[in-house]
Amino acid sequence: MMQDPSNLLVLALVLPVAGLLLTLVVGGRYAGRIALWLMPVGLAVAVMLVISVIRADDALVYYLGGWMPPLGVALRADGLSAIFILTTVAVIGATGIFARAEFRTPPGQPETRTSLTFWALLLALWGALNLVFLSNDLFSLFVALELLTFSAIPLVCLEGSAKTLAAALRYLLFALFGSVLYLLGAVLLYGAYGTLDIGLLADRVRPEPVAWAAAALMTVGLMTKTALFPLHFWLPPAHAGAPAAASAVLSALVIKASLFLIVRLWFDVMPALMNPTAAQVLATLGAAAILFGSVLALRQARLKLLIAYSTVAQIGYLFLIFPLIVRPESVAFAAADLSSELAAAVVSTSAWSGGVLQAVSHAFAKAAMFMAAGLIAQSLGHDRIADLSSIGRALPITVLAFALAGMSLMGLPPSGGFAAKWLLLTATIETGQWWWALVILGGGLLTGGYLFRVLAPALFGSRESVVLRAPVARYREVVVLALALCSVLLGFVRLGAFDLVQIGRLAKAGMGLP
Amino acid sequence: MISTTTLFGLSSVVLVGLGLFGLIVDPQPLRKILAFNLLGGGVFLLFGVIARRGAGAGLNSDPVPQALVITGLVVAFAATALAVALLLRLFQETGQAMTLDTEDPASHAPARSNDP
């Protein structure tokens, strides 16, 4: 079977779905075991996928049933998809190990509905994310997004209290608004160009009113699902109310899926439409998200809400890549001769690498932070920031993990967040857009501010001893630490490795411009 | 005299407009769910119109949008069911389902601590 590496794409989708069906058949007692057995296999598949994409130096394509587009539907994995699939399985695997204590059925006791729901939804989430990263067809992507929403929303209200139910319903209404707008855009594109296949659309889309309308509708729809400012209202209550393991996956991965689609849309589906004005608008919203999210995070009294607002802020960085990849026209026209054209290509590559590195390191860091907050809340019985004094003495590993993850969010060297923000800063300077550099630096300072509010009393509090309400299992602390370390160690990845991002891209970055 | 296709196209525009208005403006969750269905209906109708208009190759109409509309209907139905189930559960818990704002911890006022 491994003769043809494109079979890996099918395997990446079949594994979680098969696990989900098996879970529903055998029931909640074995659900955790099935999920935890599948995750190493999924990790192996993801690693093989990355290796195959690098070895082929091109995207892997699988035609379902052997039918080629426009009649059939294709799965396609380029470098970007491969990176996201690997990140997904790593974070979901760590979440699975972390959640084992919370959602298992002890022998001799009746199985609980929460346990079955959690594991089934975790597998569903994994499958839906892989489908988002692999689909090459706007309608399959719609279905994938809906699957993702439907598996994410019950995770928000696993606890079943009125507050989490209201958060889940609000999340669902925002998500449905987003997906209908996305679908409307896709319908308009089909009406104008007669296909939904990304590869065919890339050739056919012209800069004309119908394409503009479709792009605007789809972007706003996906922005709603990504919780980009000013459409972020649903995120903090939803992510802060979910159980720690669920918040970790929601904040680290689920919002990245719709972000991935925005990137795919603008750079792969409609490269002809990408222009500096649109890019500046997206980045302005991103900058506003960084500032508002960070300031609101500074004002929160609860640790989980602080982390949720920090997600709102960190999403903003990912939208800064648009104007850095698509240069303003003055710069583009200045790049008249071949050598500076080459230099421009290098710049856009560093923006790409910075954006992807930011997404991946944020995924690891945010998962680690939510899990650390979960452990703290579990052991203290609350997560009020004001009462976290000296918690570092009682839970040294957890607080260390929180601090390391925070280091990556702030962008302190040598973390992954530092490398990402450094690449973005380099790109802002090289494209002559210094105002975005100010936003990146200001955001870093604000991030440092809200993390200091948590870490300073936690590490240097005056209380002599902290009474823990419940002990914390050592292996759970180690999982959190491992995630935080991943986020930091990403800073050491040889930056050349992120050329993987460029493999199999339909339109080379920024090349759609004169 | 406008053709049937144009008439249906215009109706779909009206449905989309009404649905969007309701989904954004109306504060009641149940009405938002209904507005979402109206909006979805408008989008599916538009897709049907596109199938009719884009019919080529001697077919009566383009079969691809019809297949997609069926899938879309299933998805919209599932979404509505999930939303209504959540709303019912919320009603059982709180005894009221007219607004989502009572429990809002995301308000811009400095957050209060909700723990005992």
Total of DSSP H or I helical runs spanning 4+ residues of chain A? 20
Strand content of chain B: under 5%
Secondary-structure element order of chain A, as H and E? HHEEHHHHHHHHHHHHHHHHHH
Largest interface, Cβ cutoff 8 Å: A-B, 45 and 45 residues
Described by the principal axes of the CA atoms, the overall outline of chain A is globular
The chain-level mean pLDDT of chain A equals 86
Structural class by helix and strand composition of chain A: mainly alpha
| Count of the domains of chain A | 3
Strand content of chain A: under 5%
**Which bin fits the share of residues in helices of chain B?**
55-70%
Instruction: Work out the count of structural domains of chain B.
Output: 1
Task: Report the mean per-residue pLDDT of chain B as an integer.
Answer: 80
The end-to-end span of chain B amounts to: 69 Å
How is the biggest beta sheet of chain A arranged? 2 strands, antiparallel
Runs of chain B with pLDDT <50, length 5+? 102-116
CATH architecture of chain B: Orthogonal Bundle
Structure commentary:
The complex is a heterodimer of chains A (514) and B (116). With 514 residues, chain A is an all-alpha fold. Helices cover 72% and strands 2% of the residues of chain A. Chain A has helices spanning 7-26, 31-56, 79-99, 113-134, 138-156, 162-193, 198-204, 209-226, 235-241, 244-269, 276-298, 303-319, 321-325, 329-334, 338-380, 391-394, 396-410, 416-430, 434-460, 474-489, and strands spanning 60-63, 74-77. The radius of gyration of chain A is 22 Å and the shape is globular. The model of chain A is unreliable at 329-338 and 508-514 (pLDDT under 50). Chain B has one domain (4-97): Helix Hairpins (Orthogonal Bundle). Chain B is 68% helix and 0% strand. The longest helix of chain B has 32 residues, at 63-94. Residues 102-116 of chain B have low confidence and may be disordered. The A-B interface holds A 139, 142-143, 146, 149-150, 153, 157, 160-163, 165-170, 172-173, 176-177, 179-180, 183-184, 187, 190-191, 194, 233, 236-237, 240-241, 296, 299-302, 305, 382-384, 386 and B 16, 19, 23-24, 29, 32-33, 36, 39-40, 43, 46-47, 50, 53-54, 64-65, 68, 71-72, 75, 78-79, 82-83, 86-87, 89-90, 93-94, 100, 102-106, 108, 110-115.
